[in-house]
Amino acid sequence: MSMDIAARLARSQAIAGKTRQLLEKRTRIAREQFRERLHEAWEREMAGALANPLAPWDQWNAWWRYGLDVAQRSVLFWDTLRQRGDNYLEHVRQGQPPLLHFDHEMVLDGRTFARPVNYALLRILLPAGQEVDPRQRPYLIIDPRAGHGPGIGGFKDDSEVGVILRERHPVYFVIFFRLPEPGQTLLDVCAAEQRFVRKVRELHPDSPRPALVGNCQGGWATMMLAATDPDSTGPVVINGAPMSYWGGALQEGEGDNPMRYAGGLLGGSWLASFAADLGNGLFDGAHLVENFENLNPANTFWDKYYHLFANIDSEPPRFLEFERWWGGYFLMNREEIEWITRNLFVGNKLWSGETRAGKGRAFDLRDIKSPIVLFASLGDNITPPQQAFNWVADIYGSTEEIKARGQVIVGLLHRDIGHLGIFVSGRVARKEHAQIVEVLKSIEMLPPGLYGMAIQERPGAGGRMEYEVEFHEHRLEEVATRLNRLQRADEKPFEAVVALSELNQHRYELFVRPWVQLVTNERSAELLRQLHPLRLQRWGLSARNPWLWWLAPTAAMVRTQRQALKVGRDDLPHHGERLASELISASLDHYRALRDACGEALFFQTYGSLFSLLLGESPAATAPAAAEPQELPFVEEALAAIGEGGYDEACARVMVLLSRKGEVPLSRLAAKQEVARDHADLLPRLPPETWRRIRGEQEIIVHYEPEQALATLPALLGEPADRDRLLTLLERLVADERVQRSAPTAEQRAMLERIRAVLGREPAAPQPVAAQSA
Questions:
Q1: What is the pTM of this model?
Q2: Assigned CATH topology for domain 104-251+334-488
Q3: Where exactly are the structural domains of the chain?
């Protein structure tokens, strides 16, 4: 026993030493980046200006013009903030409707359901001059309920809604209202969204099942929906969705996504419960928005405002448009935020099957039958790629299991866009979102497995940018290793966070909650909401403030006399202004780097040691030994059934034997669809998910036992008619000019001859090819 304690103490000391080294490294890198940034700013702004000084009179004129320019810009700047405040008050007066750029109509209102929820289903109406194809797959977009109101998926032309409409698909949008219904829970919301999906299917009976698009926290809501009702949902696209909240260690030099440490540094989920109790049972979404803003103090407190100030003649419309959405704060019930924090933010339970879908049944993401597209960015410090992708390794465990279940998972990774840019950037909408919509039908044609989606740009006719899409198959084990440079050992301390969080939650509920609820009422809750700093800065700088009576008329006068076109921006005063702005921004970034480094060190010092001392030997902390791929149960089951099956299995096995490995360009998938339509009379008639499962099982068989897979092929074709049918299909494909254009390799031709030989029959004469409907 004493040896065990000594070993744990030694491990704790080792963790402390590594944490100290990490803190020193982060601090050194922060200083170097600060110095480098200041040096670059000086060289960019001041070196040239000081090397070519103006004459004294010219300098005086430059400073006089600059003073006039600053005065005018200052008035217009503060007037823009006044307009932001007025827009906020008007939006609140209207009941904070969804900020969709497109006209819409309500289809279902969740507030009228037997279990009412503050959600509704909208149909997006077509802009003038646009049409949709009613046979096209409908899309259902679910926006995040992360403090803001709905609409980010369609608040301008170049958005998810816009690019989907341009492809002539019907579009539906799930919105929510500011106030939750009394007693509603996340499970009630999930049940309501199931009704929304079924309603969309009812409205489009001749179309494929609707595709679901989930943004940020709407992503895990979408996954929960698809897992509980897999027979009603089509492909799933989740953008910047945090599914594995503990992941995040990637960069060697900078801080590793500090938001994942917030739960531990705040002592767990009790603080969300405390905030909801202060709100008289309602949690204020402004707290979540404030957490986002604190991640980047340079942008929050300076950069976005200086960008407005420096470009005051052109920037206000864009600034006001975004701030109208950013400043809409919505509320959640205590039960909702507690479920989110305890099961997702802190507990990380969604992927593990520990969260319940009602009636005792757990959410199992492996029940999703349709293809899943995961879009994340390396520049996202709220939902880093590990949080978007690690759940795949957690629930499937191996590439073989993905194939055996017939699942297609496609990952798309942006290099540098931030979290909000995933949803609001027009550049991302025109490229990534547009290509996802365009290739979604082709993704359904991919064999089961894990793929990376690559989008290549090239100049097209008329100067327009064109895109080429390719899919690269990967092994799950390699992707998980590449994304998690610490082999996920850095996630172990989060188990201690869960234990401490549950303890603090019980203590709060037992000793503190009764007193908080005793002194709280609706009037005090509303007062706290109105005095929240994010609301205060809006209504405090609005027409409601009598001290600002002079601002609007003064700004109107300044606009008529604006000297922007007469004031040069390449003089010494303006260079000095930009240098000062860069100094302030760099200082705030330096503060952020030091803050995040200290938070990271404190987290691992506290919970790393706690995990080592208390949970290090728990069964949950001991990872099972990795099995050889051929010993995995899914592989063993597939190999045990190598001689079982019929025409469907034989057809799938032949396709695997003749498949070409490596890159899968979109053009090849399009040709594959055409060929499948024209030879549909000889192909298996199965639902897509059933075909993908059979194809995945046969791929496992061919991968591990290629010779036996070929030798047992006749056992799957016991009926002579089935054998003739398969050989006829092969002969038709060989004669098809589209197949010939793809230039079959020597290995493929040799395999075709071996298949003919093992079947032992002369192929039937090729039949005329009759075009079939899809």
A1: 0.89
A2: Rossmann fold (3.40.50)
A3: 104-251+334-488, 629-759
